Amino acid sequence: MERAGGSDMSDDPDHVRIVEKAAVWFATMHGSSPSARDKKALKAWLAADPRHARAYADIDRLWTGAIELPGMKERHRTARKAMTRRGLGKAVIAGAVGLGAWRYLASHPFADYRTTTGERRTVTLADGSTVDLAAETKLSVAFTRERRGLTLHEGEAFFAVAKDAGRPFVVEAGEGRTTALGTAFGVGYRDESVTVTVTESAVDVALNSEATRVSAGSLITYDSRHIGEPRPSETGAELAWREGRLIFTQAPLGRAVQALNRWRSGRIVVVGGSLAARPITLIVNLDRTDTIVAQLAEAVPMRIVAATPYMTLLFPAD
Known about the structure:
Layout (H helix, E strand, L loop, with lengths): L14 H15 L6 H13 L1 H15 L8 H13 L3 H18 L6 E2 L6 E4 L5 E4 L4 E6 L4 E13 L8 E5 L2 E5 L3 E7 L2 E8 L1 E6 L2 E6 L2 E5 L8 E2 L12 E8 H8 L6 E4 L2 H4 L2 E7 L6 H8 L2 E7 L2 E6 L2
Parallel strand pairs: 5-6, 15-18
Antiparallel strand pairs: 1-4, 2-3, 3-5, 4-5, 5-8, 6-7, 7-10, 8-9, 9-12, 10-11, 12-13, 14-16, 17-18
């Protein structure tokens, strides 16, 4: 399953069974008035095996959205005190503070333009260029007399570039940079991978000492070490979000769900590596995100557990 922290149980053959049971318990505890008998039974189940408590805690963290949320502050203080009593000492507290700071900075709080979950936005830059931003995107702009520089920290953006022969238009994403040659193009940057899709004219994409020209109708992908070869962009899936759609063609379910979570309230979690790896072909209307779970169930056999109104767990079909 997608994890928000805790110990890695992915190599445990009982992992899926334990997580599934933990999800059922979590749904019971957050349903309508759990009984004293239910509470006692849960307490016994948690005490029976350390893996049970870890799985339950992981689901709890996914629901609350991790320790940065206001509702988690008191619980984090309690956990910190407990760790101190176990002798982990000041080093653990310092590490927790450092982790919190890292998470804060990793969210790029000082980006010039940001979008939230489910949000699309168009901005006009000082030179007249326009940028379409997809959900959960962070972009910074640094224009000078010599260069129009932008940094895509995370997300997807589409650039319609105004002509200015004296100042190149350069978008940095990850370890590479894309220089416009009087053009319109999209850049997607997620999970350390960057995809550049060109719809008009051409761009130069550079990574370290390598540079490749990409023409209209083509795309290219690179990561921190390697840049691929340009290939045709036939499906339009990379930029379909601009038209209010998401297109998945034989995409792993886990990856599709990761993208879908950026466009809807609440969270979908895939439990089990085999289910996450199942290929899925799907077209989603971003104006009807309330139907996403039902569409997933039609595309791939699965069992759905609504743990809370804000978290839905997907399990392999029995």
